[in-house]
């Protein structure tokens, strides 16, 4: 969008928050870059230029606005909508792959040469993978500086910087303040939080309907791994350097996030996974506008706009849980998963109580005895085949995976049918166009609304909902009074 100068100018002059994260406005006279909704007086048109990413603006010598904090705006929705090389690379960079494995590691995960990855990112985003990772490190550093009492040296290494000198130079260059000055700008009188817990605000594009989002996560919560407590969804996180516990509470204009980590280097990855699980980078206006064009769906959209797709923080975990939940009730699926957790999950300490384990890794599950689960023999065989394929890497479901390749590999496993493939594509892979025409809840809702109820006819009708069919599923499911559609109380 940043190449459409007139459209960008209109968005800036109207302070349209819907475009935050789509592009960044750089002011030639002040050398500052802002989000489109920046509350300050809009600059003169002749002094505006536009960039597709914060990294590109920083690389061009602009520093972040202290008023609108463009580095903290919701991410571009297109990285979760697309399945091409650039989108896959952006999801991996957000997950911290460049910081952990370097650009060669990023390229290896994508299956392309380093040169090809750099060339495509530069062509579309105006910045290469190192610059994009540097911009993310700066954002992580700002969060740690402003929300923790960590010494600056620990902040530097936790944010992924190789040296304190580079950390100081980057912070000063991006924010026009030293790390100490940045911490000093934190509001006076702000109460200190719980020691060891970071308190963050996760922004999103309005509107956001939390009912099915948190309802689904709470209703399917695995005992010991997840819980709903005091108006917040809590769960344990398996992360590259350690583990964490997160509490996510829906607020009118943000998600309140309390995050406890055993290793602060996992901060950026943990935030990225939580944003992905809650689908916070979606563009609800574009999605709902398209779905409203179907007269049968329009009343559902108007009743509760902004529904998100509840996703996951761990794709392998979700795939295992999807098989456990085949043809059984939500309660039975939770029971099966809870038994796996008790037998094979890693214990964790939760000072607040309630959470006891990490969901077991596929490596740990590879040695489990399928006979221990009270399931039909064929489903136990399916689970064993899936766990083996995930552990061996034959099926890759990570954020940088190829969606169609993953679908094909899943479908080749015994006992994995179209419903399981598509629900994994929807909630684990994050494909916004995944569709479940054979799902009983979808078919019931379709029949009640006067839509075609047979799978084939419903697939043909759903062509008008593309590329947002996963969101159409959320609206169809919401016609039922199942707990997954209701924001928990208490």
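Q: What amino acid sequence fits the structure above?
A:
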């Amino acid at each position: 969008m940043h190449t459409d100068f007139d459209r960008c100018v209109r968005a800036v002059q109207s302070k349209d928050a819907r475009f935050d994260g789509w592009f960044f406005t750089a002011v030639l006279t002040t050398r500052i870059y802002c989000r489109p909704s920046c509350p300050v007086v809009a600059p003169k048109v002749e002094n505006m230029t536009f960039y597709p990413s914060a990294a590109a603006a920083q690389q061009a010598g602009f520093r972040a606005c202290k008023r609108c904090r463009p580095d903290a705006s919701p991410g571009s929705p297109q990285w979760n909508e697309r399945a091409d090389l650039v989108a896959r690379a952006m999801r991996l960079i957000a997950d911290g792959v460049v910081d952990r494995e370097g650009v060669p590691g990023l390229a290896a995960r994508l299956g392309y040469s380093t040169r090809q990855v750099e060339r495509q990112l530069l062509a579309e985003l105006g910045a290469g993978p190192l610059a994009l990772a540097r911009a993310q490190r700066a954002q992580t550093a700002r969060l740690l500086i402003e929300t923790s009492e960590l010494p600056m040296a620990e902040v530097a290494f936790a944010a992924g910087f190789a040296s304190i000198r580079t950390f100081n130079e980057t912070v000063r260059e991006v924010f026009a303040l030293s790390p100490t000055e940045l911490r000093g700008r934190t509001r006076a009188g702000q109460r200190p939080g719980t020691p060891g817990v970071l308190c963050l605000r996760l922004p999103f594009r309005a509107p956001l309907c939390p009912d099915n989002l948190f309802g689904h996560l709470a209703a399917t919560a695995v005992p010991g791994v997840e819980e709903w407590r005091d108006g917040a969804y809590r769960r344990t996180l398996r992360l590259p350097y350690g583990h964490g516990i997160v509490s996510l509470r829906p607020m009118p204009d943000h998600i309140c996030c309390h995050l406890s980590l055993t290793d602060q280097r996992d901060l950026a990855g943990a935030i990225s996974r939580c944003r992905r699980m809650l689908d916070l980078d979606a563009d609800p206006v574009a999605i709902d506008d398209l779905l409203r064009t179907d007269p049968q769906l329009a009343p559902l959209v108007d009743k509760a706009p902004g529904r998100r797709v509840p996703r996951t923080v761990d794709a392998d975990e979700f795939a295992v849980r999807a098989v456990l939940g085949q043809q059984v009730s939500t309660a039975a699926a939770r029971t099966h998963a809870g038994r796996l957790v008790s037998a094979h999950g890693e214990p964790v300490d939760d000072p607040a109580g309630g959470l006891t384990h990490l969901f077991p890794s596929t490596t740990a599950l590879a040695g489990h005895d399928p006979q221990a689960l009270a399931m039909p023999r064929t489903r136990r065989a399916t689970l064993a085949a899936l766990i083996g394929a995930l552990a061996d890497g034959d099926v890759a479901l990570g954020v940088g995976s190829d969606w169609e390749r993953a679908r094909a590999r899943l479908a080749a496993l015994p006992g994995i049918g179209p419903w399981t493939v598509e629900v994994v594509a929807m909630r684990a892979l994050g494909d916004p166009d995944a569709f479940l025409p054979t799902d009983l809840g979808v078919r019931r809702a379709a029949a009640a609304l006067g839509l075609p109820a047979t799978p084939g006819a419903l697939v043909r009708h759903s062509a008008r909902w593309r590329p947002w069919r996963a969101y159409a599923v959320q609206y169809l499911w919401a016609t039922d009074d199942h707990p997954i559609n209701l924001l928990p109380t208490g």
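Q: And what stands out in the fold?
A: The CA atoms of residues 28 and 46 lie 9 Å apart.
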